[in-house]
Design a protein that fits this description.
199 residues, 10 helices
Length: 199
C-alpha cells in the first residue's frame, strides 16, 4: 500500500502533515500538536523547525504562545495536499477498500472537503463514478462523517450516466468539472475531457 511514508523518513512528520493538511485553517501550538499526534514533544519540535525552515509552515506569536499553520504559498503545497488526501482519512479508506467497492473509474474530493470546509450550496464533497457497491460506500462515508462530525455530501454515477451528463453539459456536472478538486482514483485528464471537447 502506498503511503506518505514512501516519501518521508520521519513518521512524526507524516502524522504532522496529516494533522495540518486535514485541518488547513487551524493554528496549533506545540503541546496541541503533541497531544493530537501522540508523539514526544522533542520530536515534534524538531519537525516543526524543519517544516518552518523549508517554508511548509508559518509561525506567529499570540500572547505567550507560538502558533503554527500551513503556508499555502509553499511551492509544493498543492502536491502535498493531494498526497495527504490520498493517503489518509476517507481517501485512504476508499483506496484500501477499492475491490469491495466495485469498479471505480473516478473518485474525487472537492477542494473545500480536503481543506476541512463544508460544501457551498449544491456542491458535493465526494463524487464517485463507476459500478459502485453502494452499501460498502455508505458504510465508509458514515464512518468518516462520525470522525469529522458532519454530513458528507456525495454523488454516485455509473460511467454511462456520467458521460451522458457531460455530453449534455448537465449543470451539476459542469460545476464539478470546473471546480477545484483532488482526484483520489482515476486520471484528471480523462475525468475532465472524455466526451467533452472544449473544456
Amino acid at each position: 500500500m502506498n503511503s506518505l511514508q514512501d516519501f518521508m523518513i520521519s513518521k512524526v512528520r507524516v502524522k504532522m502533515f496529516e494533522l495540518f493538511f486535514t485541518n488547513q485553517s487551524e493554528l496549533y501550538y506545540v503541546r496541541e500538536i503533541t497531544r493530537a499526534i501522540k508523539e514526544e514533544i522533542n520530536a515534534v519540535r524538531r519537525e516543526l523547525d524543519r517544516m518552518l525552515s523549508t517554508g511548509i509552515l508559518r509561525s506567529e506569536q499570540r500572547g505567550n504562545r507560538l502558533y503554527y499553520s500551513l503556508n499555502s504559498k509553499y511551492l509544493y503545497f498543492q502536491e502535498l495536499q493531494q498526497m495527504v488526501a490520498k493517503t489518509s482519512g476517507l481517501g485512504e479508506k476508499i483506496r484500501k477498500a477499492r475491490r469491495k467497492l466495485g469498479t471505480l473509474n473516478f473518485v474525487m474530493f472537492s477542494a473545500r472537503f480536503i481543506k476541512g470546509l463544508a460544501p457551498r450550496h449544491s456542491e458535493v464533497d465526494l463524487l464517485v463514478v463507476g459500478e459502485v457497491v453502494l452499501p460498502e460506500l455508505e458504510q465508509l462515508v458514515k464512518q468518516e462523517e462520525k470522525r469529522i462530525g458532519r454530513e458528507i455530501n456525495y454523488a454516485v454515477f455509473s460511467m454511462d450516466e456520467f458521460d451522458f451528463r457531460k455530453t449534455r453539459r448537465d449543470p451539476f456536472i459542469m460545476d464539478v468539472l470546473y471546480g477545484s478538486r483532488v482526484m483520489i482514483i482515476g486520471s484528471e485528464e480523462e475525468f475532465v475531457e472524455k466526451n467533452l471537447p472544449g473544456l
